[in-house]
Amino acid sequence: MYRIPYGKTFLEFELPSGMQGSLAVSPAVQPLTDVTGAIADALAHPIGSPPVRELAHPGSRVCIVFTDITRASPDWLLIPPILQQLEEAGVRDDDITLLCGTGLHRPSTMEEKVAKLGAAVVERYRVLDNEPQNPRALVDLGVVNQIPLSVHKVAWEAELLIATGIVEPHQYAGYSGGGKTVAVGAAGEPLIAYSHGPEFIDNPNTRLGQVEGNPFQEAITQAALRAGLNLIINVVLDKDKQVVAVMAGEPVETHRRLVAKAKQLYQVPIPHQYDVVIGGVGSPKDANLYQASRAASYLFFAPTPVVRPGGYLIIPAPCQEGAGEGVGEQRFLAAMRDAPNVQFILEDGRKNGYPPGQQRAFVMAKVLERNRVIIVGSEYPELISECKMLPKATIEDALATAAAELGTELEVLVVPQALLTLPIVKD
Questions:
Q1: What ranges make up the beta strands (E) of 110-242?
Q2: Domain 2-26+271-425 classified CATH 3.40.50.720?
Q3: Per-domain residue ranges of the chain
């Protein structure tokens, strides 16, 4: 019996006779027993940087960029001790802004701000959302190495710029965290558009789990430093969203050390490619197709694709928000729905480019060019079909569909946490 996340619950299933199953799970790592103490220690002894209380002084303008609700970073634990150090340094509440790094996602709701920061913080401090399409809210930082840099005005004008984040496998950056919360989360649309463009996604070094030599990672690191990012505090989480590592300090070296920790947790060796891969997502990222489809593309964009050409990727996701409500999500939907086929999406993207958000359509077209993708249990099956994927009610139905095309004797890999597990094909 296999068990895989579905929303805030799970789906259980068995493989049909003739199918051979394997399981890919991250190795067990002991979570921190005293997370609050570990955070305090990280902030007291940051890597390559003085602590916050020494970086700030009375009159300092401070901006803390934090992750939005689609990221599991425990900002309600990370941010209050930063605010405590700022208070000890004599920084006034009115000089502190907390900026939600939404990127091109929809603005956060008041309930989401409270969930991320805690009611006491939201009531006491100014909390804003990024405005990527509002030129008056952004600062143009010029062009460096053909990259149009921009950042939210509040972040740029801050004398002390701090960011939270979570270091986990990321399809473009190799691993997320570091400068990404500022460079993408607090950026304007042009930077997001360029960094998610076809020249990056088609680059063979823009791969899941690859940081060194990754042009996307290099771009966002440069953008964050140009914006003035002083200090980060990032975590590594296990599959149960428990903190296994936390570090604070200078952005580049701190991120490098956390990536080394994350690799020990997330990378799992597998013997070969599989005919069918079943990848779990879970809440909150399976709330819409834009986020849930990451499971399929993560498995495809592993250093070696996890599924064989012509094979099936099966992703359970309720998608109760449809494709997603943000600007980027709606662009993804329009591109997937309106194109006559996936080859058109690829050819059009390479010829004409695309706006931010639509890169997810380009990415999924690369996946669908070689594999079939089934979304199980979506509340909007017609939407799945319009996006050139297959909707099925149950995992059993999905496996039957794969068997009808590929035969009944299939090798199946089950990856319960597809966004937090990086299968590495041994050969």
A1: 126-129, 138-144, 147-152, 160-166, 169-170, 174-175, 229-237
A2: no
A3: 2-26+271-425, 35-266
213, 174 in Cβ contact below 8 A? Answer: no
- Provide the token pair at 396: 């059993």
Q: Using alpha carbons only, give the angle 1, 274, 416 rounded to the nearest 5 degrees.
A: 40
Continuous segment of H or E residues that includes residue 154: helix 153-157
Q: Please state the CATH superfamily assignment of the domain spanning residues 35-266 in this structure.
A: LarA, N-terminal domain (3.40.50.11440)
Contact 361, 335 (CB under 8 A): yes
| 4 has a pLDDT exceeding 90 | yes
Q: Which residues have a Cβ under 8 Å from the Cβ of 136 and sit 6 or more positions away?
A: 153
Give the pLDDT confidence of 78-135 residue by residue, as tens digits: 999 999 999 999 999 999 999 999 987 889 999 999 999 999 999 999 999 999 889 9
3-class state of residue 423 by DSSP: strand
Pairing outcome for strands 160-166 and 138-144: unpaired
Q: Which residues contact 308 (CB under 8 A, 6 or more apart)?
A: 273, 274, 275
Angstrom distance (rounded) from CA 346 to CA 327: 20
User: Taking the model in full, what pTM does it have?
Assistant: 0.81
Strand-pair category, 160-166 with 229-237:
parallel
* Residue 145 banded pLDDT, cuts 50, 70, 90: low
Nearest-angstrom CA–CA distance, 353 and 230: 33
DSSP states of 238-305 as a string?
Answer: -TTS-EEEEEEESHHHHHHHHHHHHHHHHEEEESS-EEEEEE---TTGGGSHHHHTHHHHHHHSSSS-
- SS3 of residue 36 by DSSP: helix
DSSP 300-358: HSSSS-SEEEEEEEEEE---TTTT-SSHHHHHHHHHHHHSSSHHHHHHHHHHH---TTT
Q: What is the pLDDT of residues 237-289, one digit of tens each?
A: 987 889 999 999 999 999 999 999 999 999 999 999 999 999 999 998 899 99
Residue 387 CB neighbour total at 10 angstroms: 24
